[in-house]
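Researcher: Here's the sequence for the chain we discussed earlier.
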Amino acid sequence: MKNLKIKLMTWATACMVVLGACDTDKLADLNIDPNVANEMDPGFVIAYSQLQISGEQFENWRTVLIYQSTMIQHLAALATYWSGDKYLYNQEYSAALWDRAYTGYIKDLVNLIDITDPTVEGQEELVNYHAIARVLKVYSFSRLTDVYGDVPYSEAGKGFADRNFFPSYDPQEFIYKDMLAELEAAHALFDEGAANPGNQDLFYGGNINQWRKFTNSLMLRLGMRLSEVEPATAESWVRKALEGGVFESNADITYIQHTDGPEGINRNGIGEVFNWDGSNFTTDDQGLLSRTFVNWMLERNDPRLEKLSWVRNGGEPRGLPNGYNTNTIQDVDPEFTSIARRDDYSRVNPLFVLRDAPMIFHTYAETEFLKAEAIERGWYAGNAATHYAQGVHAAMKMYGLYHSSLAVSDAAIDTYLAENPYNAAEWQRVLAEQIWAATLFNEYEAYANWRRTGYPVLTPVNYPGNQSNGTIPRRLRYPIGEAANNSEAYNEVLSRQGPDQFMTRMWWDVE
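Model: Thanks. This is the structure I predict for it:
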């Protein structure tokens, strides 16, 4: 077998050099011999990439919490720097995911796919490493394209290998269709008889059967994303995913169980934002549960709310309305005469946002709700109500991943299902709302599925100076450096996709 080589860079350089996606000033200072390569364990790269995808404080604070969690009305905040709550534009926050992905795990995964190619003589035994890397790449790009729209894809991550520092942007239609084809190819490659990364795989410990199910479940998610723009294409991929075998229980959930150190990359990035010290959230205590989310749960007598809500003053759950600051909040809450009033509102139960909390990427509950949707669309045989009930049960039991005390009891779930039976006449709303509830803290998916379906019906805010005319943004904006440093590609994408603004819709967002 050939020694595994990280081409055109040392691992230390890869971890330390921080490049803009196309920053010519920094590129001018690069001095890397393109003929030098160092050996690297591919299992280490997989583990490190998984941790990078989970994310550090930087992008979890900005992209996940400040923008997506508030736009989708899981959380709300009074502080104006929580830009997504008020549809304000902060260029650094908007670009956070892009900056982290393209300077980190995208280039690592592109390189790993190359150096584990099992069609190369001597690398045949690396087939599982190669397949895992391809799935991780798809997962990473699905987030990027769902947040920004058209993005560098086919030429991305090749600055070292091909000296291409000015990648073109691929149309989202091309990206989606290629990602789905990549998942199909990766699924066919998995081989339980070949070597695998074992415990270096932080998702599944090298369990190839679970990787197959994750691959198909991701195919189901991405295939369904096309339901409104290309229903026939969506149906073909949804059928293929379901026939190939998807998640079967909560034991299949894709997540990382983080630790509280020794380095930041090992910690849960959302947990780092809240930074619970045993009494308080010490880094950022601004994000509270949204009134929209709390009221939705209250109306349904949802047993998850008592697990989620922490009211410092010991009162009943109370959600903070989105779109207000410390002065205007008195328009809807006249008692909010001092900041101490915040203690009457619901914070997130600290057990969900510890530094060693799990980061959940893909759930069995979501798969069950999408199965029900496929049945309603006539794309799959079965009973939609059964899959709805199984999805609800899985979503409520899933809280036990955070702490055993948080899992909802079977009796409480049965009561909820009795009080909130499946409504086939409104299946689109019912299933989309359940996905919204189940994807709290996975705001990438919550935001994307809301744009696809239009549910739940959210009430936009119209904060002074907002950048979306008082409507919920449909995307985040590209880094400002792209216009200057990659101008040809940037201008071309604007001519195709539309202005680089919050309200420009991406290809699949036609709801």
